[in-house]
Design goal:
Blueprint (H helix, E strand, L loop, with lengths): L3 E5 L3 H13 L3 E5 L2 H11 L3 E5 L8 H10 L11 E5 L5 H4 L13 E4 L4 H19 L1
Parallel strand pairs: 1-2, 1-3, 3-4, 4-5
Length: about 140
């Protein structure tokens, strides 16, 4: 059975490109164009990993989705799903998600910038999905 990856991004072209890439590597890809839709799909499909755009042109952007999944009680059973945040802003994870400050930002399991470094992206995803699958058995 192939791993399920949920891609939450408001850019249809980016979703199509990533979906094609991941399907060619054997993943089952679910798509959501907004944070609200993404949260519903997490509940309905329980993906093995989530790829989440940080800034979307909707009322619920990536930070809100990740915060909901990590802290809201109704999503407690999904807290262990790895979240990879994706952004067009090229910063290091430490710059984007500082740990030394008092902040409510959720540090993701991975941080990727657009355009994706495909070998790095696939490696991080495989490592996360393998860890998720190993924990389930």
């Amino acid at each position: 059975m192939s791993a399920k990856v949920l891609l939450i991004d408001d850019d249809a072209d980016f979703r199509a490109a990533v979906k094609s890439l991941l399907e060619s590597h054997g993943y089952h890809v679910l798509e959501a164009s907004s944070g609200h839709e993404g949260l519903r799909m997490v509940v309905d499909h329980k993906p093995d990993a989530i790829l989440l755009d940080i800034m979307m042109e909707t009322t619920v952007e990536g930070y809100s989705v990740s915060h909901s999944l990590r802290y809201r009680d109704e999503y407690a059973e999904f807290r262990d799903i790895p979240i990879f945040m994706i952004s067009s802003i090229s910063e290091s994870p430490d710059e984007r998600f500082p740990t030394s400050m008092y902040t409510d930002l959720i540090r993701p399991d991975g941080y990727l910038t657009k355009p994706l470094d495909i070998p790095e992206f696939l490696g991080l995803l495989e490592k996360a999905v393998g860890a998720t699958k190993g924990a389930a058995t």
